[in-house]
Design goal:
- The structure holds 3 protein chains of 3 kinds.
- Chain A has 8 helices and no strands.
- Chain A is mainly alpha-helical.
- Chain A is globular.
- About 5% of the residues of chain A have low confidence.
- Chain B has 2 domains: about 70 residues, no CATH class; about 100 residues, Cation efflux protein, cytoplasmic domain (Alpha-Beta Plaits, 2-Layer Sandwich), CATH 3.30.70.1350.
- Chain B has 7 helices and 7 strands; from the N terminus they run αββααααββαββαβ.
- A 3-stranded mixed beta sheet of chain B has the order 5-6-7, with helices on one face.
- In chain B, α7 links the parallel β6 and β7.
- The termini of chain C are far apart.
- Helix content of chain C is about 35%, strand content about 30%.
- Chain C has a single domain, classed as Cation efflux protein, cytoplasmic domain (Alpha-Beta Plaits).
- In chain C, strands 1, 2, 3 and 4 form a 4-stranded mixed beta sheet that branches.
- The longest helix of chain C has 18 residues.
- By secondary structure, chain C is an alpha+beta fold.
- In chain C, β2 and β3 form a beta hairpin.
- Chains A and B meet through α1, α2, α3, α5 and α6 of A and α2, α4, α5, α6 and β5 of B.
């Protein structure tokens, strides 16, 4: 993509309404803008990188077809996060139905030593590592709530758990993360 | 840890901060701290905990975004495949008939093509990024008046009225040239403003 | 001549029309994939993109095109229809048997 493409700086809302009108290029800009986050997020939900690419591509395909239903173009990012969450959850359901054990969870990404000088970056690395330490199901509940803004009831339905269990997992995740980040400070 | 993990938290185990349960504080934060709860806001310990909650929420999201930024650019294949699928699925919308003297010849321009024309026209004008395009009226009947409504983002500092007038004229011109539509009027709604970059046109 | 061969000829003919930038597949999506497989071809470009439908005593052709921004689209579409009719006449179809539909799906700047 050309660097001086004015759409690169266009607001999400502009890109979304253009895409809804059929502008494939605007959709491409949206996909490149939000795709990386969606991929990382999907990988964390699924517990591995393996299916995250598929899940994200599937999400974008579905989203394209549903653009006409997007009521608030400015909230297209949240809307995309919802769709990719649902796709990832569908995968988890398939695994569960087939009694697949949760995939091995990869360690936190390795970062070059000399670069890790900026304090803000260190803090983010610490959070990444902390999220990594959470049991997969706690992490899922946490991510669905904190990153995709799912309600407790929605998480319960998505993961096929009682609401009280979801509350419990989020409470434990929250307590753990707060402690981890305090310790780092 | 996994044995206890599924069990709901025993209410008596729930930690409280100055009498507020952790969950109450979490919900309070989620609701944007409104309506204002004087008991919570009046407690230093509660406010401190709210700050911790906020921090882990923000950091949690930020750590994902940071990881996304650091991702090697694997964009190539997945985006191309996606776009190829999508291009096949662009819906035409209504057909705008183009006159031809012979009854056995049917010519038309799709509504989607017409929208694309308007978008392109808007983008080509300095200081304008076109948003949405809507056609009101009967597109399928030749000669029926059609109104066009567009939204657009404009560069900060430009005379918006002059910009809208020019945009209107360009849109009428291009639609007439390519679709033969009878345009009754063009509604221009500037709903966003952007700041020029150094190398902007 | 098979319908697919006729379709390929018409597609090629269309690409030469002034103002036509590109030809899209005018067949419904699923049908398109089936046709490619049935024709034993794996290059999308070598199948016919113009839809040819025959009924008793008539042939109907439908073309989806991209037209040039710098040329008035109505004129381009008219030329495209003429080119298709000319070709069909040359292929032995009587004028009153033929129905031609040309639709511009996109108006774009020439590369």
């Amino acid at each position: 993509m050309l660097e001086d493409d004015p759409l690169l700086e266009a607001a999400d809302a502009t890109l979304a309404v253009r895409a809804r009108d059929g502008d494939v290029h605007s959709y491409e800009v949206l996909a490149r803008r939000h795709g990386p986050l969606m991929r990382v997020y999907a990988a964390r939900l699924l517990g591995s990188d393996a299916e995250s690419d598929d899940v994200v591509q599937d999400a974008f395909l579905t989203a394209w077809r549903r653009l006409v239903d997007l009521d608030e173009p400015a909230r297209v990012r949240n809307w995309l996060m919802r769709i990719v969450s649902n796709k990832a959850i569908d995968r988890l359901r398939v695994r569960r139905d087939h009694d697949d054990v949760d995939s091995w969870d990869p360690p936190a990404p390795q970062h070059d030593g000399p670069e890790r000088v900026v304090e803000a970056r260190l803090q983010l690395d610490a959070m990444w590592a902390a999220l990594d330490k959470l049991p997969l199901d706690q992490r899922r509940c946490w991510l669905l709530r904190e990153t995709a803004d799912y309600s407790y009831a929605e998480i319960a339905e998505a993961l096929d758990l009682p609401v009280s269990t979801v509350r419990g997992k989020i409470a434990r995740a929250r307590a753990f993360l707060i402690t981890e980040m305090e310790a780092w400070r | 840890m996994s044995i206890d993990d599924d069990a709901p938290l025993d209410p008596t185990d729930e930690p409280t901060i100055d009498g507020q349960t952790v969950e109450r504080l979490s919900d309070y934060l989620d609701s944007g701290r409104t309506p204002r709860d004087p008991d919570i806001e009046g407690s230093a310990a509660c406010r401190l905990y709210l700050r911790s909650l906020e921090q882990v929420h923000d950091l949690s999201r930020a750590s994902l975004e940071e990881a996304a930024r650091r991702e090697p650019d694997r964009d190539g294949a997945w985006i191309d495949g996606l776009l190829a699928s999508i291009k096949r699925e662009v819906v035409g919308g209504r057909d705008i008939p183009i006159h031809h003297p012979d009854a056995s010849v049917r010519l038309s321009v799709t509504e989607a093509a017409a929208r694309g024309l308007v978008r392109r026209t808007g983008d080509a004008q300095a200081g304008v990024v076109l948003g949405s395009t809507t056609f009101d009226g009967d597109l399928a009947t030749a000669g029926a008046p059609v109104a066009v409504r567009v939204t657009a983002a404009a560069r900060y500092g430009l005379d918006l009225e002059a910009l809208a007038d020019e945009l209107r004229a360009r849109i009428v011109d291009t639609l007439t040239r390519h679709t033969g539509l009878t345009i009754s009027h063009v509604d221009v709604h500037i709903d966003d403003v952007f700041v020029a970059r150094e190398d902007d046109r | 001549m098979t319908d697919d061969a006729l379709s390929r000829d018409l597609t090629r003919r269309l690409r030469d029309v002034e103002g036509v930038l590109d030809v899209f597949d005018a067949h419904p999506v699923v049908e398109g994939a089936v046709r490619v497989v049935a024709a034993g071809l794996d290059l999308a470009g070598s199948t016919g993109l113009v839809r040819v439908e025959r009924a008793a005593g008539s042939v109907s052709v439908t073309a989806h095109v991209a037209t040039d921004l710098d040329v008035p689209t109505p004129a381009t579409l008219s030329r495209a229809a003429d080119a298709l009719r000319e070709h069909l006449a040359g292929a032995g179809f009587a004028a009153d048997e033929v129905v031609v539909t040309v639709s511009a799906r996109l108006v774009d700047a020439a590369p």
